[in-house]
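STRUCTURE:
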């Protein structure tokens, strides 16, 4: 999404400093309220809504798929109550949805980087199951794990809606004019990336992402097809409804505070 901005293909007149971090770190960075534009978990938005507007693009959306809970042995979803489950962070959307499914899980925070750490925790018996996002979500079968629950499937069956996982936000203090200018540049970057996917893929493949180099073209293609697509270019009406439904259900369950979603242009 941001390669066109970084290369100068779009966004002339604006200067972006790119910072990478895992999901939980980005959520914490947003809580500080000092970063102008940031990718966060959808579940983290109510906590920062007073400082940020939601951007209508840049989202990661699961349509019948999403994070998965896995274990080293066969386990039913109903078996998760009271189990130690590795989670990528307490502020992540994945953990929020898991609590909607089974409130009695015992979370053990295992950061997503290095990606192998969560599998090591499973192998060592430190946890009995693991909630996987990002690369780990695609690699668990190679690591001898079995699927216990697919959160996006559960959400679709429950609501008939897509599951917004990650969103982008922009700081309110930038003011209406700058917010509109930056939003337009971000949208242009995503549109450019989707239109020039074949040229950008080799650049991504050349990057080392922790211990996982997404240098297997089939794996990278699958990953991007899931999370960098038309839903990323613009939030469709059903995605917006999915987000409102997720936040409302979490509020009703006492998991998140009430929140009024406000959108940037």
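SEQUENCE:
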């Amino acid at each position: 999404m941001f390669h066109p901005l970084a290369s100068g293909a779009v966004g002339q007149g604006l200067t972006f400093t790119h910072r990478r971090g895992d999901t939980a770190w980005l959520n914490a960075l947003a809580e500080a309220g000092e970063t102008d534009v940031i990718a966060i978990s959808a579940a983290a938005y109510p906590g920062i809504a007073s400082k940020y507007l939601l951007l209508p693009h840049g989202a990661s959306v699961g349509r019948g798929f999403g994070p998965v809970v896995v274990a080293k042995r066969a386990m039913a979803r109903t078996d998760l109550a009271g189990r130690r489950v590795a989670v990528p962070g307490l502020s992540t959307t994945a953990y929020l949805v898991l609590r909607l499914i089974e409130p009695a899980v015992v979370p053990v925070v295992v950061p997503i980087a290095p990606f192998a750490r969560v599998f090591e925790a499973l192998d060592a018996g430190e946890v009995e199951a693991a909630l996987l996002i990002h690369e780990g979500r695609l690699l668990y079968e190679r690591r001898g794990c079995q699927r216990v629950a697919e959160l996006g499937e559960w959400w679709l069956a429950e609501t008939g809606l897509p599951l917004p996982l990650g969103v982008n936000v922009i700081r309110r203090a930038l003011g209406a004019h700058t917010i509109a200018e930056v939003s337009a540049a971000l949208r242009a970057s995503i549109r450019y990336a989707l239109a020039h996917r074949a040229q950008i893929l080799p650049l991504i493949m050349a990057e080392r992402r922790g211990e996982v180099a997404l240098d297997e073209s089939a794996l990278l293609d699958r990953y991007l097809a899931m999370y960098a697509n038309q839903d990323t270019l613009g939030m469709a009406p059903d995605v917006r409804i999915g987000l409102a439904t997720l936040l409302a259900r979490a509020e009703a369950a006492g998991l998140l505070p009430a929140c009024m979603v406000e959108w940037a242009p």
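REMARK: The mean pLDDT is 92.
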